[in-house]
Write a structure and sequence with these properties.
307 residues; mainly beta; four-stranded mixed β-sheet; 26 strands; 36% strand
Length: 307
């Protein structure tokens, strides 16, 4: 049996208490000196759109402190993170090419702060059909100008050099034709624009004769209006034409630098002169009752908000 002296035990206990006391005091001191701090980061803005070609882009990030590190992730395989950082900074990311037709949407993710990235789709066109060659036979053309499609899918082409209109089905099979050189009803002199209204009536800009001619879908003559001049309902080398959804007809009176509006029977309503001022589009409309339906023409383009 081992004997321990009382004095030795007391000394051992005192030594142990000193160790525990120092350790406990150090732990308390360390705990009191630790400062708690929050670290949060967020994107500036909600999102962005990039082209279908892809490439690199960036998004700005704001952090609560200069030492706050941020780590962004992506929920889309086509989005790649190029850089991280801390404090206020800019995230760099890239997007791969979108070969699909439809746009795709992905997100860059910070805690409670998603950033949306929309990538536009690729417009894809396929050759469905083609037809025509130079000449004057059925299905041949000489300087074709305007084209329009009716609600049944029939295709109407202004065969300007042959002074006629040709009609085809949607895959190019010849249906009918009408017109010849001249100034009589149903005749043309260098026809240009074409428009088809909601009822299937066909309107032709007979440019060389400074008039508009109206036909049914089979080419039967219905009406005409216009003469050479600068008065209401007169034209100087008219070119383009459009049919509004409520039946009004708009004609670009090119030589007179104006747009004229008519009802479907050719009754004049008003005209306006476009002007391109220093600040872009201006609303300088003439002879107009309802100015809300008039916006300006710039570079031979027609802008309308109502018909």
């Amino acid at each position: 049996m081992t004997k321990i002296k009382i004095g030795g035990l007391v000394s051992f206990l005192l030594f142990l208490s000193l160790i525990l006391g120092v350790t406990e005091g150090f732990a308390a001191s360390s705990s009191n000196s630790t400062l708690s701090s929050s670290c949060s980061s967020s994107f500036n803005g909600q999102g962005t759109t990039i082209s279908s070609a892809g490439g690199t882009d960036s998004a700005d990030i704001t952090s609560s402190t200069s030492t706050c590190s941020w780590n962004v992730t992506s929920d889309s395989s086509w989005l790649s993170i190029l850089s991280g950082g801390k404090g206020n900074g800019t995230l760099q990311y890239s997007a791969s090419v979108n070969t699909g037709i439809y746009p795709r949407v992905g997100r860059l993710l910070l805690p409670n702060s998603p950033f949306s990235v929309t990538q536009s789709g690729t417009e894809t066109y396929f050759m469905a059909a083609k037809w025509g060659s130079f000449g004057s036979g059925d299905g041949q053309f000489s300087s074709p100008q305007g084209i329009s499609i009716d609600s049944y899918g029939f295709v109407y082409i202004v065969d300007s050099g042959n002074n006629r209109i040709q009609k085809f089905d949607s895959i190019g099979n010849f249906v009918t034709k009408w017109g010849a050189a001249g100034s009589g009803d149903g005749q043309f002199s260098a026809p240009q624009g074409i428009a088809i209204d909601a009822h299937g009536f066909v309107y032709i800009v007979d440019g060389g004769n400074n008039r508009i001619q109206k036909f049914d879908a089979n080419g039967n003559f219905i009406a005409k209006w216009g003469t050479a001049g600068s008065g209401d309902g007169q034209f100087n080398a008219p070119f383009g034409i459009a049919a509004g959804p409520t039946g009004f007809i708009f004609v670009s009176d090119t030589g007179n630098n104006r747009i004229q509006k008519f009802d479907s029977n050719g009754n004049f309503i008003y005209w306006w002169v476009p002007q391109n001022g220093a600040e872009g589009l201006t609303d300088n409309c003439q002879h107009i009752v309802d100015k809300k339906s008039c916006h300006d023409i710039v570079d031979n383009r027609l802008f309308l908000t109502t018909s």
